[in-house]
Design brief:
about 130 residues, alpha/beta, four-stranded parallel β-sheet, 5 helices
Length: about 130
């Protein structure tokens, strides 16, 4: 996924993590506006990681990329502070569209949002 995000001309990778504990550590260092988590990270999954991230960085937006049905994912994620759930069935291009739309509707495009990703951390440039 990192290669895919690095190929996007308007995104910049600022950090990455292979598991939830490392994602929390990197997020505290980088202080991104948006974090993209994989639901199925090893050790500490995205749903276990999200509440800790939200508690430590309450202004961040958390997006979870999951193989589960979006409706099921949304119900699970709303309870742990996740702002958006994207099904892996939408593919990486679908993920980019949804994230760009989300960033635009939250006003983050105006502030050149930094996006930290569980295994690659792209940053939206304006």
């Amino acid at each position: 996924m990192r290669d895919f995000f690095e190929s996007l001309t308007d995104w910049y990778i600022v950090g990455d993590a292979a598991d939830g504990a490392k994602a929390i550590q990197r997020a505290m260092e980088l202080k991104p506006d948006v974090i993209l988590l994989d639901f199925s990270m090893k050790d500490m999954n995205g749903i276990e990681t999200a509440p800790t991230l939200k508690k430590m960085l309450p202004d961040i937006h958390i997006i979870v990329f999951t193989m589960y049905d979006a409706a099921l994912g949304s119900r699970l994620c709303s309870a742990v502070g996740v702002d958006l759930v994207v099904s892996k069935a939408e593919g990486l291009n679908g993920l980019v569209k949804v994230v760009n739309h989300f960033i635009g509707t939250t006003g983050l495009l105006k502030s050149a949002a930094k996006i930290d990703h569980q295994s690659a951390s792209p940053s939206e440039q304006t």
